[in-house]
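Minutes, project check-in
Item: structure for the 128-residue chain
Input as provided by the requester:
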Amino acid sequence: MSKILNYIRDLPEVRTGIFILSVLLSGILCSGFITEITINGKLEWFTFYKTTTFWLLCAYAVLLYLYNRFIYLHEKNILRFLDDDYCKAYIINQCLPEITERYKKDIKEGKQLTELIDIRAELKKLKK
């Protein structure tokens, strides 16, 4: 599932295809809806909630919302990397577990306090 989501998120061809299909599908559903509520050449709006296409349009709207939200969150996440402070914090966040494991390993091996890695120095290296 995540592989499919990565294709949707990362490939402009897939996103364009989804856009084209969504336009076609919305046109078909709207046309079908109008056809279903037209009785004897007149629109009978009071019957809209009884039609299948109305509920398909509702489901389609929810799916379209979820897709657009997914794309929005991805693009918002990308924009965060334009901020230098965010990038530094991200790098530290990703590297901190490894530094911590190295520190724990050194302690288990019985290294003296002076022999242990200096976590603050390691973090300063990452911030550069």
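Outcome recorded: The radius of gyration is 27 Å.
No further action items on this chain.
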